[in-house]
Amino acid sequence: MINRSNFGKFYIGGKWVTPSTDRLLDVISPITEETICQVADAAIEDIDCAVDAAHQAFENGPWPRMTPLERAGILERFATILRRHSDDFATSWIETTGVIPSMAAQSLEYSVSTIDRSIEQASSFPFIEQHPPENGGNMLVHEPVGVVAAIAPWNAPLASMMTKIGPALVAGCTVIMKPAPQTPVEAYLMAECADEAGFPEGVINLLVADRDASDHLVRHQHVDKVSFTGSVATGKRIAAVCADRIARVTLELGGKSAAIVLDDYDLKTAAENLAGAITVLNGQNCAALTRIIISRDRHDEFVAHLVTAVEAITVGNPYDPETRLGPITMKSQIEKIEGYIATGVAEGATLATGGKRPAHLKQGYYFEPTVFANVDNKMAIAQEEIFGPVLCVIPCDGEEDAIRIANDSPFGLAGAVYTNDNAKAYEVARQVRTGTFGQNGMKASFAISFGGFKQSGLGREGGLKGLLPYLEPKTVMLDGALDE
C-alpha cells in the first residue's frame, strides 16, 4: 500500500525530502469530482535540488560505472517489487483517470515488461563493439547520455514512465521522474519501489511540478536529455529549448490516426472493432483510430453499423461491471471535447450519435461516445486531436483517395487498414506515413518500437530503437588490442 505521507514530499538523492515551499496540488477524481489527495508542488529550488542529485550521481556515483549486467541485477529487484504492488497501481490508475478495472488490471504487467526488456538488453546489446583490424584496438563504445528528465502524460502515467526509465537506467543514466500533476500517484509508488530496490542515491528522483518549474527542468544545463510524452504544443516548446542548448530529446506527441476500410471487409465487423477501440483509455489515447475512411457508396451503411455499436457501449462508473467507457480524466478536457462537438456541427458534419454528457450521470466527467458522419478531412474535427471518444467518418473515392486522405494530416502516429488481403494490407501500410500501422485493428508494439512521423514526435520508444537515444556512441582507437 502506498505511503500517503510521502505525498507532501519529493524523492531526491535517495531520501524523501521536504519541499522548499508548502504549495500543494489537488488530484481530482474524475468519478466523483472530489479531491483524492494533495501532492507537493515543486518550486524552482526543488528542481535545482533534484537535478543536482541526479548530476552528482552521474558524475561521481557508481551507477554509470557499473556494467550493464550489474545494473540489470538491481533492475530485476525493482521489477519484482513493482509486481508485488500490482493491485495498488491498478487502483491508483482507476481512481485518477477513470479507466475500467479490466484495463487497469493489465497495466502493471504490461508496464513492467518494459523493465524486463531492458534487463534482457543488458546482455544482448553490444555496449562495446570491436571493429577491424581485429588485432588492433578499434572499438565503438556506447556510454550513457547523462541526466534524463522523464516527463510522463496524465492518461497513461505508469506505462509511459516505465517506457522512459527502463532503457535510461540500463544504459547507465540517472533519472528525474516528472509525472503530470493531474495523475502523479503511480510515480510516487514507483519511487517507493525504487527506494526498496536499493538504487544508489540520486539515480532515481521524483518531483511533481506545474508549468513554470517544469520549464526550468527542461532548460537546466545539467539535464542532458528530455524524454517527453504529451501535447504537440508542449512538445514544440521543449524541442525549441533543447535545440537552443543542443540537449538530446525524444518526443511522443499527438495523433489523428486513420483507419481505412477497404471494400472487401465486412462493415459490421469493422464497425464493432472500431467502436470497441474508442473505449481504450476512455478515448484518451494518442494512437486511437479516430478518422475512419470508407468508400462513399458504403459510407451510410457503415455509419449505421457504427452508431449501433457505439450506442451499445455502457458509459458509467468504472467500478460498475457493465461499464465499458468510464469518465474523461479532467474537467478541462471534457470542456475541450464539448468545444470540438460544437465546432464539428458548425462545420457541417453530421452528428450521428452522442455529443454530450449523459443526462443520467449527474456527477463525474462522463461523455457519450460520439460519431460524426459526412466529415470533410479539412474540418478541424478531422485535423486536430480531440483526445476523447469521438469518431469521424470520412467518405472517399477509392483506395488511392483513401491513402491521400490518411496522409493529409499534420500527424503520423498510427493507422490501420481493414482488409482480408494481407498483401494489400502491406501495400497500403507502406504508403501511409505513420510510425505504426496495423491490419484490422488498432495495434502497437513497444517491444518493437513506437513513435510517430511529422508532428507526432521525434525518435522512438520501446525495443532497441528505444534504448539508443539514452546512449552516446564513442569511437575509441588504441594502438593495440587490450589484454584479456
General description of the model:
The chain has about 475 residues and is an alpha/beta fold. It folds into two domains: about 5-255 and about 455-475, Aldehyde Dehydrogenase, Chain A, domain 1 (3-Layer(aba) Sandwich); about 255-445, 3-Layer(aba) Sandwich (Aldehyde Dehydrogenase, Chain A, domain 2). It has 15 helices and 22 strands. It has helices at about 45-60, 70-85, 85-95, 100-125, 155-170, 185-195, 210-220, 230-245, 265-275, 300-310, 330-345, 380-385, 400-405, 420-430, 465; strands at about 10, 15, 25-30, 35-40, 130, 135-145, 145-150, 175-180, 205, 225-230, 250, 255-260, 290-295, 350-355, 370-375, 390-395, 410, 415-420, 440, 455, 455-460, 470-480. The strands form six sheets. It has a seven-stranded mixed β-sheet with strand order 14-15-16-13-12-18-19, sandwiched between helices. A six-stranded mixed β-sheet has the order 9-8-7-10-11-21, with helices on both faces. Helix 14 links the parallel strand 18 and strand 19 (about 440). Helix 2 packs antiparallel against helix 4 (about 100-125) and helix 2 crosses helix 6 (about 185-195). The chain is globular and about 70 Å long.
